[in-house]
Amino acid sequence: MNHIVIGAGIPFLIGLTIYWVRGARADMKLLVALPLFMAAGAWWAILPDFPLLWGDMAWYLRAHRSPWIDVFFWHGTIDRIEKEMDLAPWNLLAMILMMAALLAVAWRELYRRETHAGRRASAGSVTGFVAKKPEQAQRRG
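Predicted structure:
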């Protein structure tokens, strides 16, 4: 699970940086792209373990002995370190916190847009357009 958390965490931290640089605002592109990049990062991080799915232990061991294994978000280094410590509860907590943060930002942006649209609508008509005064309408007619 360490691989998944790190693979999803790197794009999450990049997205968080973009969010703060923009003054704690997220547009729809960021809200859609960030979870997709997080999923792609998680898949990329566990890619070296895929040979185990089809039972190719020789390819799995060869890949894990290769120096290029760390291209997959430090997969080999994590494998060597994680044998020494049990981080499973913390990994689950990290994933839950990342997902909760994404959901909170999405709700916040939706709330901001709805209240902003509500203010525009209350300034004029329901559609947000301001009705003309009767004397303005008579001058044209």
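Summary: The mean pLDDT is 84.
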